[in-house]
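Protocol step 4 of 5: obtain the predicted structure for the target chain.
Materials: sequence only (see below). No template structures provided, no constraints applied. The aim of this step is simply to have a reference model before the mutagenesis design in step 5. Sequence pasted as it appears in the construct record:
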Amino acid sequence: MTRTRIDDKLSVSGQPSLDAIGALGAEGVALLINNRPDGEEPDQPGTAAERAAADAAGVAYLDLPVTGPTITREAVERFHAAVEAAPGPVVAHCRSGTRSLTLWVLGEVLAGRLHRDEIGAFGARHGFDLSGAVRWLDAHGH
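Step 4 output (structure tokens):
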């Protein structure tokens, strides 16, 4: 699992293996957020297996499945609240990390901490195409 550090609290990644999830507790990760719907790809472990691995590692787990077209303001707010409330580092994952970072960026824009015109450059600095976040803001009147 390759993680991209976004700030002191949040990192995003593609799909972690169960072994990688099991190692998160020893690394001091407080919360794992899964942004993948079960069954998205045949080889992903799935929510139940991920939750069991996180529980065994002493890591809190949040299942918040979204796809690009199904991101809602409620999902953005739940993601942001979970990251802010976590007592330590958070790893959020989806297939590539893009959806997880999109949720975070949208929350930052809605909170007034990031301007929509900064999204493209922010994504590029971290190696992600966040044009979907801009399209979401357009579609939702922001």
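Step 4 remarks: The longest strand covers residues 10-13. Strands lie at 3-5, 10-13, 31-34, 60-63, 90-93.
Proceed to step 5.
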